[in-house]
Design brief:
The complex is a heterodimer. Chain A is 44% helix and 23% strand. Chain A is α/β, with parallel strands linked by helices. In chain A, the strands form two sheets. In chain A, strands 6-7-8-3-9-10 form a six-stranded mixed β-sheet, with helices on both faces. Chain A has a four-stranded antiparallel β-sheet with strand order 2-1-4-5, with helices on one face. In chain A, helix 3 packs across helix 4, helix 3 packs parallel to helix 6 and helix 9 crosses helix 10. The mean pLDDT of chain A is 89. The radius of gyration of chain B is 25 Å and the shape is globular. Chain B is built from 24 helices and no strands. Chain B starts with 7 loop residues before the first helix and ends in a 13-residue tail after the last helix. Helix content of chain B is 73%, strand content 0%. Chain B is mainly alpha-helical. The chains are: A alpha/beta, B mainly alpha. At the A-B interface, helix 2 and helix 3 of A face helix 1, helix 2 and helix 5 of B.
Amino acid sequence: MIKIRHLSKEFGRQVAVREIDLDIPAGQLVGLLGPNGAGKSTTIKMLIGMLMPTSGTAEVGGFDVINDPLSVKRITGYVPETGAVFESLTGWEYLQLVAALYHIPEHEATQRIERFGQFFDLTTDTLQEKQLAAYSKGMRQKVVITSALLHNPQVVFFDEPLNGLDANAALSLKTLITSLAHEGKTIVYCSHILDVVERICERVVIIHKGSIVADGTVAQLMEQTGQQSLEHVFNKLTATENLLARAEEFARALAK
Amino acid sequence: MKETTIDRQQLTALLKCYFRLSTRGRVAQAMGRGGKPRSLLFVLGLYVFIGLMNGVMLLTVQLDVFTYTVMLHSMTFFVVGMALTAESGDILFNVNESDVLLHRPIHSRTLLLAKSLNLIAFALLLAGALNLFPMFFGLGASGAQLWFPIVHLFSITLLCVFCAALVVCTYGLVIRFLDREKFDNFAAWSQVGMSILFIVGYQVVPRLLQRFEGLTLEPYARYLFALPPAWFAGIDSWAAGDRPVAGLLPLAAGGLLVTAALAYVAIGRLAPSYGEGLTRLSESKSRAPKPARLRKRATSIRNPLLRWWLRDPIERWSFRLAAVYMRRDRDIKLRLYPSLSIFLVFPLIGLLDRKRGGFSVFVPLMTVWILGTMPMSALETLRMSSHYAAADIFAIAPLSSAAPVFHGVRKAILYYLLLPAICVAGALIGYLAPGGRAGLWLAVPGLIAIPTISLLPGWMDEYLPLSRPPAQGEQSSRNMGLLFVTMIVMLAVVVGSYLAWSAGLLWVLVIVELAVVTLVHRAFGRVIRNRQLERATGNGWLQ
């Protein structure tokens, strides 16, 4: 479903993504991990046609992201890390706008929005009366997630989707993501919450300094690195050394 | 569906969305004031009033249709051009929009058309308000036909399309060649240039025309082909006036052709580069780091006098915050510098008037009068930012009052904007009056008053920089209110200066004013210092 070959992205002198190769089959739930600035979001943005790669190729659902970005956008959904929405619209207006952009007929869009509203505990009144600027962060995130799934995409990219969600909503979303994968959707899940990734993703890809440094199931990665959890695997592959000692020294200096 | 065609369903949805966004202020919503576009309504009301006054004034001079509509279109061209110049950056290249729309399957042509139509609708609102009364008063112009209002409505619509297409074309062309940072700088400075052009055009062109033609313009004059308002006046006069067709037809046809060509190039040709440009704007290029020596210089205040002036550490850091935003932030640059260009125009007008009738003492008086409003205008601009949520830092920090923050920003404006403007204006006026530089002394009372007048925004209301979300029309309406107060105060100072100068008592006035200003400055400062800082409550600063 996703095929990446020698994909690179440079911002001026800085190389954000360096010649990565990756294949993700349909129906797979892949966790994309990496420290801040590793190149995860840049990779996702290239795969959904938001950023033009500097070199290399990528296909999503058989469509070339460089030559046919509109077709790629039609079959993908994206939950951005920023949770950006048009804040002066009500939740309802925003979702109707998104539905229209994907050519979903209005009556069908209404049904879908109501269904998502029920799932996320967002009442129609709340959606129709309040503008998004007045929503809590969690409520807004629910709208953002709904807007990414409204058109029933084949591939969904989640970038820190649990941002701001309460425990119940987070649990619902994790279950939904797993169910979507079981239904045959390809999911790329980008997060810093490693235990969630460990629990729900069948495959984990770790990016560090723009390159893929690990790719496999959690069990495989633990075996390859000799570590006991995904957190330790991640730490071993991406962190600077003596993390614990440095933290203790810093806390002591701060307390003085 | 062909990928290059306009998607009507998407276009309709986007237009609805942009209309709602344009007419709803985020601050108003957060404050639970409903969805009424108060700011925009205020501006429209003001333009209706200005239009009424303008129409009455033009009507009393008994002009023919062509001259009357040249005047009207000049004013509309100025207002619409300035408004589009100020708003187009936000509408066409809103970086915050990229995470909402850039991953949706929207062809760049559809998106660009939606944004262009939004620009045109915004321009039409302003132009409609400004021409509401003059459109009907035009029936009183000599030779006007009964259908003049309808024709004029058509011609101002065309003028709005022309202005919007011109803006889109300009940006569409330059975005092909520039990365984000260069584009931001270009956008800011091109808007300054365009603002000066519109203001100078509006102020200077009628003076030139008057010199050449008196109060009746001849449509045969070749120079009229260089003036877009004359093209659209040609349409009015040709279709609803009694001028000979042969003289007006080329002007009217020129207007139609140029507008159609610009619109075609904007939407038909530049859409792909617009799409690429939007993608590029969402990238940020890393640059080579500056040498340590230069980095230090950029953030340090070395001038001992300035260090003394900014001896309060909070003031000093607010000063730096304002200076950095004025230099680096795209939103602020796009809003600030074009609005400041008006302050350079009066000395330029003086240049023309001088050639016409010698140096006038009104030039320094007018200049200092206008300069007095600059700090207020800049302070209001710096009040709004797309980073408004970050202003929560002022609520989190243990500050009892916004006073030091306000003074820091105010001093940055006085130092970085007002001082250079005074130098430039002084140099221009000094050049204008080589034999009578004594006229410059007339500006002294005004200059003394400016620092105290700059306290007004902080005295009237709690002032925190970058703490309010920008909204279309918001800046204009807020500025108008404070501008009015500031202009009245400055006018009193300026009139006083003139009367004292005429009576040979200018220096007496200066001494008295110094005493009064010191007292008022202290009183204002006390009010600002004693006002307790209100706390943020979620969506921006609620006051």
